[in-house]
Amino acid sequence: MIDIEKLHKSFGKNDVLKGISAHIEQGEVVAVIGPSGSGKSTFLRCINFLEVPTSGRIVYQGEEVTAHAAKLQAVRKRIGMVFQHFHLFPHMTVLENITYAPITVNKVGKATAVQKARELLQKVGLADKENEYPNRLSGGQKQRVAIARALAMEPEVILFDEPTSALDPEMVKEVLEVMKSLAHSGITMVIVTHEMGFAKEVADRVLFLDGGLLVEDASPAQFFAAPKSERAQAFLEKVL
Amino acid sequence: MKKSSWLLLTILMVTISSMLFTPFQQHAAAQGKHAKTLVMGTSADYAPYEFVDTKKSSDVIGFDVDIARKIADRLGYNLEIKDMDFNGLIPALDANRVDFVMAGMTPNAERKKKIDFSSVYYKASQMIVTNQKSIKKVKDLQGKTIGVQLGSIQEKEAKKIASQVNDVAIDKQNKVTDLVEQLKSGRMDAAVIEDGVAVEYLNKNPDLSGFKIPHSDATGTAIALPKNSALTEKFNEQIATMKKNGDIEKIAKKWFEPKKKASDEKRAIIDFSEIFPSVPFILKGIVTTLQFVVVSIIFGFLLGTLLALCKIGGVKPLRWFADAYTSIFRGTPLILQLIVIYNATPQVTGYKISAFVAGVLTFGLNSAAYVSEIIRGGINAVDKGQREASMALGIPKSAMMRQIILPQALKNILPSLMNEFITLTKESAIVAVIGTMDIMRRAQIVSADSYRYLEPLLVAGVIYYVMVMILTVLGRMLERRMSRSD
Ligand SMILES: Nc1ncnc2c1ncn2[C@@H]1O[C@H](COP(=O)(O)OP(=O)(O)OP(=O)(O)O)[C@@H](O)[C@H]1O
Ligand SMILES: [Mg+2]
């Protein structure tokens, strides 16, 4: 579904991604892990061109992603994204946050969009919050709204960039629960995370990045039980 | 956007467009007895030559006006009068905004370089007006300060006195009303004022006394016309006729004759009873000022938003343009911009914009420079994540700007914007210079008509203050509305 070919990205003189190639299958749940600064976020953001690669290609559903504005928009509609810091629209209610893009971008009727949004809020356990403004919500609630917002566009893939890292510990679980049920729904997910337990339990595959290189690409069972590289071993020793 | 906001916007738009199509300038009666019309420029703060009897109406009247009417009528023209600041008269003549100027104007060499004068239609002599009973002749002025109107014949007269009497200091002021006010407050001892004008002040102010300066240079008053105007010859013929048949003398008698002797009772320093009947005249300026301020603010805001987008956009030439624009409009005085735009536009484009349009243009263009900086700052202060979240959802750039970024930016910059709008409201008083009949200009006219200086200005001050307070309250309400989401 997504082909990443020889992806390079540098910021000035800083080579952050040094040639990463990977393939992501339809319906797969992929966990991206690695030390801080290894380039995980950059890798993820290159997939939907929030960062424009220095060289290399992203091929989505057989078609190369480029910076061409209209084409890029069309691709982004189909790729959802959830950020570490939520980035909800603070001047819109929860319901407006969720319905805005479907109405504006997908030209869905308002009534349909609202109905769909309510279903999603039900799903993430926030049915009673539709008229709240984001600033009145807890971190966990915000992140669940952000997930609902991404889902409202009915994307084929969702990219998660450390969705629980900014949350107080007691709220991590409620977000992970939502993501777990999503994983079982068959949608493709790429998740940058430090939650090793979650990766082990939910992911179909683990990508381990270090120093801008893809060091390991393995199943969670394999990776967590017997990492091949020394770097992965050292990393796991530290975090587990 | 909410339905109610759209409604509000629509109402606003309708109001503004209806304002734009109502006539702004007070054109004193061009009602058509004749087929053609002459436009006379004057500065209606010089009684009894030209002033407004603000207790009764908004019409400019006086000695000059009567003479102009008579001449225009005899030549087969209607007369239309345009009032403006005295300093704006010659530029207006230059830019063909008026056909001729009558404003108690004296021909002098400097003026003659730019414009032509008719023959002199009236000669006045000079008087010393003083606040001290002990000053009865020119010699008594030793060691005193005497005031004159800057650049006037009287200034020369004062210099002559200074060369004859020891220790005379000369204080130059812009207007005769300023001179009288300084006399009353004791900041100067005497002033040189033309007799016809002085008589009026002496009538109204029992504290002042005066005497004619012996052998003073007679001020000749003449009509100013554009260089090589075809009208000059015709005007001269009419002046000659009117001198011969006694018309000018008759009109002079009507305006310059001393009237009832002022009562001797002491007058309070501040006394509103005198100008009370003129308050409605000043209040009418609110409409002009409001129209002016509202249109300028909206124009400035829209243009400012556009400029802000140029500044943050990726197109380099647009960014350079917007930066240069801002630096020019912030780096030069507003009053200079106003006068340049008002007088240069007709010369460059051949299209005579009205004082109102020139004012709106200047204030709008100027305000846009400040607004664009405020908005640019506001946009940059919006969290980068908002943009990324929008992009990730596939939201087009324009919709993202209008509905995600700008609303958040506006909320943050509302206090600064409000501040800019308040400044604009107060500074709008500057348009009085080009003769828009706004609150300030009307206050000046009342002050000239009533021989009361402070009171009309205080009334104008109160009106401006109330307007600013209303604006402040509206701003607070808007702020509260926008902070629902906090
Ligand atoms: N916009 C940018 N401009 C310049 N340098 C950047 C930018 N974004 C990231 N970098 C640099 O790229 C490197 C990798 O950053 P990235 O955020 O991809 O790492 P990460 O693996 O996600 O780390 P973390 O686990 O801390 O989030 C870092 O050295 C960072 O400083
Ligand atoms: Mg990261």
From TrEMBL, chain A:
Domain ABC transporter: 2-236
UniProt keyword list: ATP-binding, Nucleotide-binding, Transport
GO molecular function, one term: ATP binding
Keyword Endoplasmic reticulum (UniProt): no
PROSITE patterns: ABC_TRANSPORTER_1 (PS00211), ABC_TRANSPORTER_2 (PS50893)
Record-linked InterPro entries: AAA+_ATPase (IPR003593), ABC_ATPase_HisP-typ (IPR030679), ABC_transporter-like_ATP-bd (IPR003439), ABC_transporter-like_CS (IPR017871), MetN_ABC_transporter-like (IPR050086), P-loop_NTPase (IPR027417)
Protein name, per record: Amino acid ABC transporter ATP-binding protein
Organism name: Fictibacillus macauensis ZFHKF-1
Phylogenetic lineage: Bacteria, Bacillati, Bacillota, Bacilli, Bacillales
Automatic annotation (TrEMBL), chain B:
Signal peptide limits: 1-28
Compartmental location: Cell membrane
Keyword Ribonucleoprotein applies: no
InterPro entries, per the entry: AA_ABC_transptr_permease_3TM (IPR010065), ArtM/GltK/GlnP/TcyL/YhdX-like (IPR043429), Iontro_rcpt_C (IPR001320), MetI-like (IPR000515), MetI-like_sf (IPR035906), SBP_3_CS (IPR018313), Solute-binding_3/MltF_N (IPR001638)
Recorded GO MF terms: ligand-gated monoatomic ion channel activity
This protein's record includes keyword Signal: yes
Membrane topology value: Multi-pass membrane protein
PANTHER family the record matches: GLUTAMINE TRANSPORT SYSTEM PERMEASE PROTEIN GLNP (PTHR30614:SF20), MEMBRANE COMPONENT OF AMINO ACID ABC TRANSPORTER (PTHR30614)
Domain ABC transmembrane type-1: 286-475
Classification of source organism: Bacteria, Bacillati, Bacillota, Bacilli, Bacillales
Pfam families (alphabetical): BPD_transp_1, SBP_bac_3
One GO cellular component, as annotated: ATP-binding cassette (ABC) transporter complex
Entries under SUPFAM superfamilies matching the protein: MetI-like, Periplasmic binding protein-like II
Similarity-based family: Belongs to the bacterial solute-binding protein 3 family. Belongs to the binding-protein-dependent transport system permease family. HisMQ subfamily.
Residues passing through the membrane, by range: 290-310, 457-478
Protein name: Polar amino acid ABC transporter inner membrane subunit
Keywords: Amino-acid transport, Cell membrane, Membrane, Signal, Transmembrane, Transmembrane helix, Transport
A GO BP annotation: amino acid transport
Source organism: Fictibacillus macauensis ZFHKF-1
